[in-house]
Amino acid sequence: MSSHAVWVLFIIAFSVCPLPSAGTRSSIVLPSQLGLGSPSSCRAPDPNLYYQPVIGIVSHPGDGTSGRLSNATGVSYIAASYVKFVEAAGARVVPLIYTEPPEKLLKKLELVNGVLFTGGWAKSGLYFETVTKIFKKILEKNDAGDHFPLYAVCLGFELITMIVSQDNNILEEFSASDQASTIQFVESAKIEETVFQRFPPELLRKMTTDCLVMQNHHYGISPGKLLDNPKLSSFFEILTTCTDEDDKVYVSTVSSRNYPVTGFQWHPEKNAFEWGSPRIPHTEDAIQITQHAANFLVSEARKSLNRPLTQELLDNLIYNYSPTYGGKAGKGYDEVYLFAQV
Length: 342
Fold this sequence. Notes:
Elements: H1 3-16, H2 22-26, E1 54-58, E2 60-61, E3 76-79, H3 80-88, E4 92-96, H4 102-108, E5 114-117, H5 125-143, E6 150-153, H6 155-165, E7 172-181, E8 184-185, H7 201-209, E9 213-220, H8 223-228, H9 230-235, E10 236-243, E11 249-256, E12 261-264, H10 270-273, H11 284-301, H12 310-316, E13 324-325, E14 335-339
Parallel strand pairs: 1-4, 1-5, 5-6, 6-12
Antiparallel strand pairs: 2-3, 3-14, 7-9, 8-10, 10-11, 11-12, 13-14
């Protein structure tokens, strides 16, 4: 191309996209000129909320790996996926070791802003007694004016069903072990102010058509049996149901009518943080479910009135322990925190 042709192209380009002149530069308007303030005048956080929330997670009997990591008497564990679940939403964790003396556990409840009951198998003995005491204390704290949330996952939901109904034989058998499933919303349920309140409408729709939630349980409760029990029906509102491998319908998500208590028969933590089963959903939609569920728990915990003493909290955080990799067997939990009997 000749130099003349290049010059002609330059002139054409300049006429179409002229360089900014001094006058053009002065037309750029900064946020401060619009009255939007400057970085030094950021809006103050809500003084009614606590932005350093802590969640207490109750340990479960055993090592979480059928004895592959520890056969010690009295050992208990917390799957690291529950810890990561809480941390992903902006909170820290204090382990509530179920073998600790009751007075120590109750003291630890003053260091946290909410509690999580995990999945597992134990439904009797010291573990059941400990969960019962903590559950009653959670209700007491709410009755006294502290907004103190509870998430009860899988076994955790089964346990509070037993506790609220005062019937240790209330549960029914279902075939939903290692199964991804859809989730069906109860038409009469109001999802405002529940775990589903901030889920995008499209994600809620996909949950009813795509297998985006992970089930891993042999027990549960049917909608009819829950509604026929006056204690349960007055305490819980059924939000969702699921269907097991034998086409039996069970309650999969509940919300307490009067307390910040949410029960899941499914596992909101597994999608993002567990890899032992090939059936665990790991799609972007599935990960969003984990994140939205975690966000709701922590947003509720920020409403708590608890303001723990810094040093006492630091001494009890789960950061004082190290997780153990248990996923080499290709099943079960990928990581667990192990606790010796206290």
